[in-house]
From TrEMBL:
Gene3D superfamilies: 2.40.50.90
InterPro entries: SNase_OB-fold_sf, Staphylococal_nuclease_OB-fold, Thermonucl_AS
TM spans (from-to): none
One Pfam family of this chain: SNase
Molecular-function annotations in GO: nuclease activity; nucleic acid binding
Record-given protein name: Nuclease
Coiled coil regions in record: none
Domain TNase-like: 37-164
């Protein structure tokens, strides 16, 4: 009798272990699905040089924060030019957004592709945005190299915002603005 109850307990533990493994694998598959999410649509609006609005086939609008870049704020030098350049790349065009997360404002953060063109990379190449190195770990190794090289080339050739003798990074601009308004660092 005792051996039978030990066997039943062992079988119960094996089932519990198998269930835990299955649950863990399902969670990993869900995370992988999120990491590989693709949104298809048409760009119908721009907030600035790194944020667009995409209308999907169900007529739902999605705010998209272009991954890998940080563009000048609207009230900052080159802010309007950056927005205009991004508009020339994406406005009214069909896009494919490869995304993996949403930011604290609920915007999808993703790679915005117009055909084979990476809109974020083109913003950096034109000197209309910085490579946002604080989030580079979220990019592939190839993207990190491409974006860094594009920024270095834009700086070297004084394209876009790099014409300015002392361009202020958007994250520094926002921090100074918060500090001036007493919001702290």
């Amino acid at each position: 009798m005792r051996n039978a109850s030990l066997r039943e307990a062992a079988i119960g533990h094996k089932r519990l272990f198998a269930h835990a493994i299955t649950t863990a694998l399902a969670a990993l598959v869900c995370q992988a699905a999120i990491a590989d999410s693709v949104l298809l649509g048409r760009v119908v609006g721009l907030a600035d040089g790194d944020t667009v609005t995409v209308l999907d086939s169900s007529f739902v609008q999605h705010k998209i924060r272009v991954a890998g870049i940080d563009a000048p704020e609207k009230s900052q030098a080159f802010g309007n030019r950056s927005k205009a350049h991004l508009a020339s790349l994406v406005m009214g065009k069909p896009v494919e957004v490869h995304w993996h997360k949403k930011d604290r404002y609920g915007r999808v953060v993703g790679l915005v592709m117009v055909g084979a063109v990476d809109a974020g990379l083109e913003q950096v190449r034109a000197g209309m945005a910085w490579h946002y190195t604080a989030y580079a770990r979220e990019q592939s190794a190839e993207q990190q190299v491409s974006y860094a090289a594009a920024e270095a080339d834009a700086r070297l050739n004084h394209r876009g915002l790099w014409r300015d003798a002392t361009p202020i990074a958007p994250w520094d601009f926002r921090a100074a603005k918060r500090q001036a308004h007493g919001s702290g660092p």
